[in-house]
């Protein structure tokens, strides 16, 4: 029964987009290491997309390099001769250094090789964001244009918000665009909202622990845009009318005599009428009052599709020319990086942000694609992940690019090169830490699936 209810279409779309997105990011990241290693005369033994323990899905040797695709979509690698990496090829390191090996190259060349992947990921993100702005522009919803206010879901009601409220300030700072609300909330430990209610300002303060709960739910069940319930189309195979019928443009304002002027009100009310026949109050042609008898199915559905909220609210859209999109994309990318770093910092400084609530594996990452193929969303998420991949890889942790870069900088400053044995142990410690973190994140996601 559970399998029948599972949304395989959404699952397939998420998996497909995840694999495509990360294939692009990983391939280009590793290409950065590959091309700079070749540039400086290093021999590259392997270039792999995804990891390949025990076997590869595909491999082919061209020249001195084996190119392949692994079966574990958690990363990729290039194996450069004379470099202590995840392959842990200790035997090769016991042999005398050769001119084509990584360890034979000057420190500045090794530093460039190690940072090339990070640089490519960061530049790629800026290019992606620039092209997104060039292709689709930038669309935002000004708070001033939300004439129907918000729909307060369960968590919003819990904190004191109500349907129809208009959030105008967060922590006494003007909220100009509704789109900025999530990141503004996440970057502050203690939040106070100023809402316009019945023409007056009302203050809503988050109680202790609420932000942690909100973060855990990824802002779901909080607030959304409220809009009228106007019929866009009717599914003839599902809708069952006992008298009259709904037509395109009808505005549903009541159910069995109870007012439900907005779509959110109506959607909540339908849950109380599963398997029953109801009388709908409808405004037709903006003037006529009509009664329509309808049967609600056992799942609480009526069999119609409402007009989207965008039809009732004016968004602010900015288009960019090709030249304009470049500085705008750079600005957008830098802003996303700053937000990510701020969020990461809060994990270690805030009592409200718990690491376990914010940590996720490939399962969580896959879900961010939204369950359907939307190219704007796909490229936006790919750009964000490219920024994150660049930042995480530059952290000074052994086994990451940043760890290797740190040891190389130490060598350049002190003139002393860390020994091969030290590098082996550092690589092992880093790999254990990373694999442990990945296993922990995967365990958290599995636990959330069955929770």
What is the compact description of this entry?
This protein is an alpha+beta fold.
Commentary on this structure:
This protein is an alpha+beta fold. It folds into 3 domains: 194 residues, no CATH class; 83 residues, Pdz3 Domain, CATH 2.30.42.10; 79 residues, Pdz3 Domain, CATH 2.30.42. Helix content is 44%, strand content 20%. The strands form 6 sheets. The protein has a 5-stranded antiparallel beta sheet with strand order 13-17-16-14-15, with helices on one face. A 4-stranded mixed beta sheet has the order 2-3-1-4, covered by helices on one side. Helix 4 packs across helix 9, helix 4 packs antiparallel against helix 12 and helix 9 crosses helix 12.
* Category by helix and strand content: alpha+beta
Mean pLDDT: 86
**Approximate strand percentage:** 15-25%
Stretches with pLDDT under 50, minimum 5 residues: 1-5
Distance between the termini: 18 Å
Salient structural properties:
451 residues, alpha+beta, Pdz3 Domain, five-stranded antiparallel beta sheet, four-stranded mixed beta sheet, disordered N terminus
Give the arrangement of secondary structure elements.
Elements: H1 2-5, H2 8-39, E1 44-51, E2 58-62, E3 65-69, E4 72-80, H3 90-94, H4 107-136, E5 138-140, E6 150-152, H5 154-159, E7 166-170, E8 173-174, H6 181-186, E9 192-197, E10 200-205, H7 210-216, E11 223-225, E12 231-234, E13 240-243, E14 251-255, E15 258-259, H8 263-270, E16 277-284, E17 288-295, E18 304-306, E19 316-318, H9 322-349, H10 355-358, H11 362-367, H12 375-393, H13 401-414, H14 420-450
Parallel strand pairs: 1-3
Antiparallel strand pairs: 1-4, 2-3, 5-19, 6-11, 7-8, 7-9, 9-10, 12-18, 13-17, 14-15, 14-16, 16-17
């Amino acid at each position: 029964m559970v399998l029948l209810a599972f949304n395989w279409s959404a699952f397939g779309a998420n998996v497909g987009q995840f694999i495509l997105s990360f294939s692009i990011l990983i391939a280009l990241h590793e290409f950065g290491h590959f091309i700079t290693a070749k540039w400086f005369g290093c021999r590259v033994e392997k270039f792999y997309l995804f990891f390949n323990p025990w076997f590869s899905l595909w491999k082919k040797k061209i020249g001195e390099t084996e190119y392949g695709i692994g079966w574990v979509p958690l990363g990729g690698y290039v194996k450069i001769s004379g470099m202590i990496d995840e392959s842990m090829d200790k035997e090769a390191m016991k042999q005398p250094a050769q001119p084509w090996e990584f360890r034979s190259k000057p420190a500045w060349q090794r530093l460039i090789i190690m940072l090339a992947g990070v640089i490519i990921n960061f530049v790629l993100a800026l290019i992606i964001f620039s092209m997104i702005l060039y292709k689709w522009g930038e669309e935002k919803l000004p708070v001033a244009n939300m004439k129907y206010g918000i729909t307060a879901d369960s968590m919003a009601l819990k904190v004191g918000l109500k349907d129809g409220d208009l959030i105008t300030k967060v922590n006494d700072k003007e909220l100009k665009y509704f789109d900025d609300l999530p990141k503004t909330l996440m970057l502050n430990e203690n939040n106070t909202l100023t809402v316009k209610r019945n023409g007056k300002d009302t203050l809503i303060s988050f109680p202790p622990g609420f932000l942690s709960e909100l973060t855990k739910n990824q802002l779901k069940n909080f607030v959304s845009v409220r809009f009228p319930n106007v019929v866009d189309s009717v599914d003839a195979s599902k809708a069952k009318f006992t008298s009259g019928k709904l037509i395109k443009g009808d505005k549903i304002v009541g159910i069995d005599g109870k007012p439900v002027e907005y779509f959110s009100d109506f959607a909540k009310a339908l849950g109380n009428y599963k398997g029953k026949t109801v009388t709908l109050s409808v405004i037709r042609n903006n003037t006529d009052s009509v009664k329509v008898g309808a049967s609600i199915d056992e799942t609480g559905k009526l069999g119609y599709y409402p007009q989207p909220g965008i039809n009732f609210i004016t968004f602010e859209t900015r288009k960019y020319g090709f030249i304009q999109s470049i500085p705008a994309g750079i600005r957008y990318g830098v802003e996303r990086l700053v937000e990510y770093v701020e969020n990461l910092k809060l994990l270690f400084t805030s009592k409200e942000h718990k690491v376990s609530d914010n940590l996720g594996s490939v399962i969580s990452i896959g879900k961010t694609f939204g369950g359907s193929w939307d190219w704007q969303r796909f490229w936006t998420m790919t750009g964000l992940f490219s920024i994150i991949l660049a930042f995480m890889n530059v952290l000074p942790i052994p086994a990451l690019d940043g760890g290797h870069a740190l040891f190389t900088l130490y060598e350049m400053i002190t003139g002393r090169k860390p020994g091969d044995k030290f590098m082996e142990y550092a690589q092992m410690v880093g790999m254990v830490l990373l694999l442990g973190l990945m296993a922990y994140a995967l365990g958290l996601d599995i636990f959330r699936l069955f929770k």
